Amino acid sequence: MTGIHRSLGAALIGAIAVSLAPQVQAQSVDAGVEATTDEVRRGLSWSDGEVSGSADARVGFGGLDASLRLAMLRKSDRHANADAVADLALGKDWEAGAFTLRTEAIGHVFTNADSNMNYGELGLGARYSIGPLQVGGMAWYAPKQDNIGGDNLHLRATADAGLPGFPVSVFAALGYTTGDTQDSRSARLRPAGDYTDWKVGAEFNQFPFTFGVDYVGTDIDVAQTVSISPFADLKHAGDRVLARVRMSF
């Protein structure tokens, strides 16, 4: 068993132990599986532009929430040929009048990569609801880590709304990613340095199924001919349309 597999195994056992601990009474449990034409995060493909599948679970308890998501990466160039990633998160919402504040810690654990690709980040944000419209902002900061070539900061503004009388919602997001270094490994999360990304889309929800279509893109110059880094994967950092379907439990 590799070190990465041991890390993943320990993380999974820890998450299960937390969710099943006898002294903790789960207040909510959500889970589901999803298929998508591309696993895209912050405008960047994490699955080499290929079809991906994922499974996730979330448990709320004692004012906190713990979640685990497993996603296929299809030998991702961005993550040193990793087969999959496990995202483990622990978060809490704080009510502040009309606003809801959000704090969270996330660990990303990669399996079968050519080298250690694991890293962690912290999140802080807020959201505000006005009738069917919800707007929000979030910042995720990954402190300096060798596996991402330094530190990384991602800022994101979001808006989503349900259409009254219809099981349809629309959404939009605008993000900006920056960091203090630009080397081979920092190209995993910033392929050509600081960049902006965007996303607009719509979802049709008829429990237990959700069908979605997204348009995502970045302002990264994907036509660059000079190799920046083996992790940059510029050919999968441009605009594209995604389709996805999710089944909830």
Number of domains: 1
Low-pLDDT ranges: 1-23
CATH topology: Porin
Named CATH architecture: Beta Barrel
* Ends apart, CA distance between termini: 32 Å
* The first-level CATH class name: Mainly Beta
The largest sheet, given as strand count, sense and whether it forms a barrel, is: 12 strands, antiparallel, barrel
CATH homologous superfamily identity: monomeric porin ompg
Shape, principal axes of CA atoms = globular
| Rg | 18 Å
Look at the structure and give the mean pLDDT.
90
Portion in beta strands: over 45%
Please write the string of helix (H) and strand (E) elements: HEEEEEEEEEEEEEE
Strand order, biggest sheet? 1-4-5-6-7-8-9-10-11-12-13-14
- Tally of separate helices: 1
Q: Roughly what percent helix? A: under 10%
User: How many strand segments?
Assistant: 14
Question: What structural class do helix, strand and pairing data support?
Answer: mainly beta
What does this structure look like?
The protein has one domain (3-19, 26-248): Porin (Beta Barrel). It has one helix and 14 strands, in the order αββββββββββββββ. It has one helix spanning 3-20, and strands at residues 26-36, 40-41, 44-45, 52-61, 64-76, 82-96, 99-111, 119-130, 133-145, 150-162, 168-178, 195-206, 209-218, 240-248. The longest helix has 18 residues, at 3-20. It is globular. It starts with a helix and ends with a strand.
